[in-house]
Task: structure prediction
Amino acid sequence: MIEANSQEHTVFAPWNEADKEPFVRIENVTKKFGNFVAIDNISLNIFEREFYALLGPSGCGKTTLLRMLAGFEIPTSGRIIIDGEDMSKVPPHKRPVNMMFQSYALFPHMTVEQNIAFGLKQDHLPKAEIADQVERMINLVKLNAFAKRKPEQLSGGQRQRVALARSLAKNPKMLLLDEPLGALDKKLREETQFELMNIQEKLGITFVIVTHDQEEAMTVSSRIAVMDSGTVAQVAPPAEIYEFPNSRKVADFIGDVNIFEGRVADVQADSAQILINASDVPVRTGRSVEAALGETVWVAVRPEKMIVSLNPPKNMTENVLKGEVWDIGYLGKLSVYHVRLQDKRMVTVAMTNRYRETEHTITWEDSVYVSWAPNASVVLMS
Amino acid sequence: MGAERLCRVDELSGVAMTSPDPMKKKHKGLPLVSGGLVSMICECPPYRWAASRCYRWGLQGRSLTVMVPYLWLVLLFLAPFLIVVKISFSEIRIAIPPYAPLFEMIDGLYVQLNLHMANYQRLFHDDLYMHAYLSSLRIAVVSTVLTLLVGYPIAYGMARAPKSWRLPLLMLVILPFWTSFLIRVYAWIGILKTEGFLNMFLLWTGVIDEPLVILHTNIAVYIGIVYSYLPFMILPLYSSLEKMDHSLLEAAADLGCPPHKAFWKVTFPLSRPGIIAGCFLVFIPAVGEFVIPDLLGGSSTLMIGKTLWSEFFNNRDWPLASAAAVILLLLLVVPIVWFQRFQSNRSQLGE
Amino acid sequence: MIKSWSWFNKVSLIVGFAFLYVPIILLVIYSFNESRLVTVWAGFSTKWYGQLFQNEGIMNAAMVTLKVAFLSSTLATIFGTMAGFSMVRFGRFRGRTLFNGMIYAPLVMPEVITGLSLLLMFVAISLDRGLWTITLAHTTFAMCYVAVVIQARLNAFDRSIEEAAMDLGCPPLKTFFVITLPIILPGVLSGWLLSFTLSLDDLVIASFTTGPGATTLPMKIYSMVRFGVTPEINAVSTILIGIIATGVLLASVLHKRRESQRKNDELLASAIP
Result:
């Protein structure tokens, strides 16, 4: 994430600064429910002011990890340190973090302002101070007209705002968000994503968000931890996760991808050649690989980085596959082609529709060539 | 700490602050809706002290919540039941209490176990008790079937009634359930007796020439059970019928199934969980029923609940009554366990 | 969806509700009968009600019943709420199976057995029987009903609401009182009402567990009924029916105002053990 106001356009990347102390340290945390291992020896660092996303399919342990940060689950082994303090023995109501629940968990018997005031009252602040802060929070989430309403009299989007205001009212050091936008419809979700980012930037609070929606994670977060069955597969900023996934699992989970199995045939300083099983034509990659000759690797190419053409691309001896158009999906701005290769495998290619439909030349059962530039592909070792 | 943190939010959010005065007025009514009293208690030092203590004890506060009802039930439900089992193996004695101890010290030297099976033997060999058990089961089965036959049309009618009618109708079914059981049974005495309302009505309409003898027969017992337990049958039936998607019947009609057939092919099978739950809720208490056979039944009406009562109060044979209770319970275990498994299977399927 | 109900449904409802209500209505009407002969109408009179209040035996029994019902329903509500809460919120704990068994068993246990077993225990520990032993007995079985009602209520309740309170700095016990209790309050109240009427109704268990001097109203009515149908019993019954009907209707009207939507499930939950 780039700090917009900064003069020198310095990149916000505390994880690259060697001397920076992380705000949250999750050290070798394991959580078991009976025999089921929900979290398997995870270690993560989260830095101050980060917008950190835990992304993964349902059941991958992301919510469990978040609940451990809030204190609702206690690690079976390992430690969680928040702001230099070991949280192992600290109950939820004494932690400097607040949580926004997936169901919003608004108190149904209290009005909007009572909900927002609840956390402040627990600190036994003076009444006037509570009132001021409630007013500020109500302004922040623009709910002034609804302060006296009960949760059941609000729409889904309004409830979501109340939940956000309530969890921010105590000005926590860190806000945990459990699928905060899951219940909203698509349009509202997209709007709210940007609003969340604005609020996070304004308040300078560390946000940790749990989501299964990869677009949401990519939009809002500074870094994403991709989780899979209790382990962390990769932690990186969104662009890196998308462009340089470290495994087939991550590549497959984030966006669409074509993956070809093959063996390393040649390794150079700035490139490598891989013989893939799907074609006689070798694949050339734009980066070197750290693998021995003959080792099995996987080449991943995103559909939008590929081109379909009726004629063989000129001057290309590598990165070209021959096939037959099996299916075309017209999506308006894009057309998605499913191309069947000679060995009956399917390749998905997405191309921008730069011309009108009338000039559309590629059609069903055409023999076509699928090609891509060397730097469009990534080699995955696992 | 609070104030400093609050200020930070204000600076960063850049939201214009309003003057605090109108806010104060607004917030006068802010105490929790759950009642000022509760929050007052929660704010007061002794409570906070106790609460912090509870937390310091960690799980102990939690286990206290379990332990109180747990101990209560062990002492007043489990222990008494074990005592029944114990006494059922004792011998009757003319004494206070009227049974022999199970363990007896002989000469202060050794303990003798007086395990006495005679009570059970008597239960199985004396025709009276076997008949009482069998007749309890028979009466319970017959009246459960009758209750189903009476209750199903009512539940069906309720479930098909216009939406605004359903809740009042449900209320009307539940209301008798709250009124005294004894009174509802008593009401039938006035109706069923020889010079009662039913006979008066039938004689007046000329359907019969001589009054029917219904009171103090098994028929009166059936009527009493059906009447008393009807709400137990209607409620589960109604809830399973009401949940049913009406479009299922439309789909059946669309596929060429006439309405009466659709009832037997679609509605009835889908209400099976309700039927089973309703029958269970009627059958189980009916087997051990005492008041109905006692007030409405005659001398020939044998039901184990009544037999047990008279064995206990009239003959003062506590060991035999205990043995009868143990057998009655064993009799009920089979349907209860079966029903439990049915319910848990259903909830697993539901998930 | 369903525009009209068929004549079959209407007839079955009319006949069904007549069956449910005619006996009670007859009973109430004939409590105002001038004649001692219960089935012969001889003009309107409230004299049986007057005689009722002169009858010391009935008035004493009524007092005993009310005391027992108040005490036992209050205790049962407290213990039952604790039990229901433990069952839903504490997951697995040692002895959980036994605990569940002890909650559900009294619901299906024939009253004669419950009464017999409690009496035998009171005798075994030579406890003086009377009002207090009836109260103990009623508390025991009523708390199981309350536990089931509370359990249903808590299961329908989003647990993260409690977690949110704790997350905002509210300690667990306080969370129970300011968050959980207000939300499950309708369940707690209907549990109390249920316990109260169960205690008010009970004949069998009270007969077993009572001692000299403590006669409850159902026991009194029962002994009167054995001598035949009398207008006094009709009058007592009418009063009892009146009290309970008013209480239940009032409760349900209040309830309906609070949440008309959830009412349906709540009534079902409170009536089906």
